[in-house]
Design goal:
The complex is a heterodimer of chains A (424) and B (293).
Chain A: H1 9-31, E1 33-36, E2 39-42, H2 44-66, H3 68-78, E3 85-86, H4 95-112, H5 115-140, H6 149-166, H7 170-192, H8 197-217, H9 219-222, E4 228-229, H10 250-253, H11 261-285, H12 289-299, H13 301-306, H14 311-337, E5 339-340, H15 347-360, H16 365-381, H17 389-403, E6 412-413
Parallel strand pairs in A: 3-6
Antiparallel strand pairs in A: 1-2, 4-5
Helix pairs in contact in A: 1-2, 2-3, 4-11, 5-11, 5-14, 5-15, 5-16, 6-7, 6-8, 6-14, 7-14, 11-14, 12-14, 15-16
Chain B: E1 5-16, E2 19-30, E3 34-38, H1 45-52, E4 60-67, E5 70-73, H2 74-77, H3 90-102, H4 105-110, E6 113-115, H5 128-135, H6 144-149, H7 152-171, H8 187-199, E7 205-209, H9 217-234, E8 237-241, H10 245-251, E9 254-259, E10 262-267, H11 269-273, H12 276-283
Parallel strand pairs in B: 3-8, 3-9, 6-7, 7-8
Antiparallel strand pairs in B: 1-2, 1-4, 4-5, 9-10
Protein name (chain A): Amino acid/amide ABC transporter membrane protein 2, HAAT family (TC 3.A.1.4.-)
GO cellular component, one term (chain A): plasma membrane
Domain High-affinity branched-chain amino acid transport system permease LivHM N-terminal (chain A): 12-108
Chain lengths: 424, 293
Amino acid sequence: MNQQTGVNFGASIKDAVIAGLLALIVFGPIVGVLLDGYDFSARPGDLATIVAVVMFGRFVISIFVQSDVGRKFLYRHAMKEDGVTVTAPDYKSKMYYILPIVIVIGLLVPFVATKYILTVVILGLIYVLLGLGLNIVVGLAGLLDLGFVGFYAIGAYGLALGYEYLGLGFWSMLPIAAVMAAIAGAILGFPVLRMHGDYLAIVTLGFGEIIRLVLTNWTEFTHGPNGVSAPLPTLFGLEFQRRSREGTPFHEFFGLPFDSAYKYMFVYLILFVVVLAVLYVKHRLTRMPIGRAWEALREDEIACRSLGLNHVLVKLSAFMLGASTGGIAGVFFATYQGFVNPSSFTFFESALILAIVVLGGMGSTLGVVIAAFVLTVMPEMLREFADYRVLMFGILMVVMMIWKPRGLVRVTRKGFATRKGAVK
Amino acid sequence: MSQENILEVENLVMHFGGIKALNDVTFNIKRGSVSALIGPNGAGKTTVFNCLTGFYKATGGSILLNAGNKQTSVVKVLGEKFKGSDFINPAAFAERVKYKMFGGSHLVNRAGLARTFQNIRLFKEMSVIENLLVAQHMSVQRSMISGILNTASFKNSEEAALRKAFYWLEVVHLTEFANRLAGELSYGQQRRLEIARSMCTNPEIICLDEPAAGLNPSETEALASMIRVLRDEHNTTVLLIEHDMGMVMNISDYIVVLDHGEVIAKGGPDDIKSNPKVIAAYLGAEEGEEVSL
């Protein structure tokens, strides 16, 4: 590097002034003017503070990138190779050491965490499931699905309505909801999967909205916007309520004092096991013929057809497996909330799940897990800034697209040891 | 059904709107031969290929493929319009519905015809070896349960697929690149990988669309010997489109010349070299002028 080494303060001041002017334009109408009925009052003090903060921040960053440390930092990030890599055949993932630790910590969480933290973690895990499901469709098979929340709704309402009309509990609905969502995926998928890209996105978007509108308007069946209550899971028939209608409740059976946190602990533990199982299945799928076919389809559909792969069935299988994972997530959501109504299944949810997949890195399992926690736990931690949540969401996305356009975690592919070739 | 001809194309017609891309194209490809389809640019060579491999639905005519001990009609497996007689004959009706719903060019490949593309179509973000594993999709253990549980039968099937993939990598001299991404390979390597990938589907006839395009003379030479290996050691019939006349004349047993969507000449290399119609089509020359091939 042969650039000049000193720090050019004049340029930094110029940067700061430009940033300050931009901040004035952006925040002037938002912060500087406070509406009060039909009147308004100017708030120059607040505006000045924000502009000063922006200018100071820009000045510090400008100085930093001119320093040696800053230059190295920029250089490192500019050189970042973000593409896919193939691991060496004898490569051993660090996950073999990290995973057992995560499992132990995960199993300890319900016994040390407060009820509030537990509920937040449960929500995070539900989004991990949703992210993994959509990751099959978008990340692996490359089908842009904007209506994924529809399958989530089918799972959630499946539990609530199955309990109300058929008396089916959590344990029977868990597999049934997965099958129901998969069938819904197939019904949606078969006619539309001959479409590509944008057209598919629009149709799936419509599907998500249709499900929500049906749930809202078919009042005699779904109770419309009033919602339906959903049952809690039972431990071999033991219920987690204070009073049980039939049989003894959980706390009485074990002689414990009643605590409403027990049900969350139980939901958490089941969910944790299910997430681990789904992660394992997901991991296997990418190493199976079907997983390879999905990725091949994402890369080149015409080449796939020329190799004897039925592209419609391959797409359909991705759609169905993704949807069934979404259905399972829905069942957990319903049992955790104890109540479902259509307002939980808006387009914003679909966008959030898609953001999880994009943020984590298309096709990366680890990335989806991390992104799901970031995007669900962070808003909880930043409750005070709830008004700025969407703004922060946007900033996060912009920053990611600049520095990590391919997602948080780089996708790696398994390498194979060279062996003697032979034809049967 | 003729065992001598692996491919029988009769009166093939292909119209795009008002444009007649192919007009009554008729030719037969003998089993175990290396045949070439040549012609000036825009003559309809790739259109013939796309019809043969099921990427275009021919407007008229028939394409019969005699492979895998049965006869496949390429036009039929793509799904045809219903005919009046179908409503009387339930079996024919069911078959047509089946092909309409699940038919397509993948069935042509499963019947024993593989192809490569003029503009290379590899799975660029997958490794070289995975490209070959995808091609073996129909012959590996695809059961969901045995794959998730990683059973012995699944492992055996994967191992056999890997062995076959490495075999074909050896044939095309790409073994050392097995764990590279397909998109990182050089142009010539990508062309060879595409041929290896098509061969992994166990075809009886392989259609190569301009395999020598963009290759240097020594690579072209290597390609020609590779094509002979395909025919001699694997009993694969080869049909190729090519502009490199030196190579075409060198390796082909039979040549079909197309011009303006019509077959203007068929025969061995020597007949074609001296055919005045072919010379005229290529050079627009007066008859009698010498052409160096």
